[in-house]
Amino acid sequence: MISAQELTEQLQSYSKIINVSANAYFDFEPKEQAIIIEQGELMIIGPKDLKTGRSGRQIFQENDPIGFAESIAIAETAYECNVLSDLRIRVFEGAEIRNFANKAGVFSRTIIRYSLNRIFDGMRKDSKASIVFEDEFIFKNYDDLQKVEIASGTEIFKAGADADKMYFIESGSVAVNTAQNKLITTLSAGECFGEAALLGEDVRNATVTTATDVSLVAIEKTRAETELRAGHPMTQLATLMLLKQLGLMNQLRGMR
Predict the structure, then answer these.
(1) CATH of the domain at 197
(2) CA dist 107 → 2, 131, 145, 163, 169 (Å)
(3) What is this structure's pTM?
(4) 14 in any annotated domain
(5) Closest of 109, 204, 131 to residue 165, by C-alpha
(6) CA 160 to CA 157: how far, in whole Å?
(7) How far from 3 is each of 6, 10, 63, 240, CA to CA, in Å?
(8) What CA–CA distance (Å, rounded) separates 215 from 232?
(9) Does 189 map to a domain?
(10) Does a structural domain hold residue 56?
């Protein structure tokens, strides 16, 4: 398992520590800074749902990231941050994160692009759909990957199940729901899901069901980790933090 904490320790020279008092103001505008919480709690308040007028709220805690997506995409935030307790945060320069993300290998580069798309798709009306795993990875390794055909209406995995692989959708679409069966998103050909397996999580945090007949390529957790480890520690950290940010944003949307 790739440990984000161990990567952070390796990359101390690329970052600085800032302490923020409870209820104090701190500019979390992250397009020029990417943050990892080392101690304390932060309340994230998402944008209002146009139908309900309600905003999702999510508590970010130790090892949770803020602003990695915005740093790489040079984008504005779409959420507010309220400091709930004394915070110790590790801050990376946005330009440094972008530099390593732009030099990432094909696997990390695809995960980065895919994560950015998923994160901003729920925040921007003009965001495009699908990020496709590049030919350099999928077709080069196609014979070594597991192909799966699943009928419409089938539960691929349930929240709480073992997280042992991630999936690339060749054709068809799937619905991703919270553990409470609230729809988070629908994914189609060219996208992937189950990526939390890369974060070392033992169980799934969402339920995925086929919306149509689907053809999938399964990428075993160990294979994905091997591909990820080929990159610089900063690239590995940025990739993992983007995946974690995506998971947290999905939870935030599911609470609206």
Answers:
(1) 2.60.120.10
(2) 15, 12, 14, 19, 16
(3) 0.78
(4) no
(5) 204
(6) 9
(7) 5, 11, 11, 9
(8) 33
(9) yes
(10) no
State the residue range of the domain holding 168: 108-231
pLDDT tens-digit readout, 173-222: 999 998 888 888 888 887 788 877 777 677 888 899 999 999 998 888 88
- Round to whole Å and give the CA distance between 37 and 93: 15
- Counting the structural domains of the chain, the total is 1
Domain annotation covers residue 40? no
Question: Secondary structure of 135-159 in the HEC alphabet?
Answer: HHHHCCCHHHCEEEEECCCCEEECC
Q: Tell me which amino acid residue 78 is.
A: A
DSSP secondary-structure letter at 197? Answer: G
pLDDT tens readout for residues 3-44: 888 999 999 999 999 999 998 888 887 668 999 999 999 999
pLDDT for 85 = 95
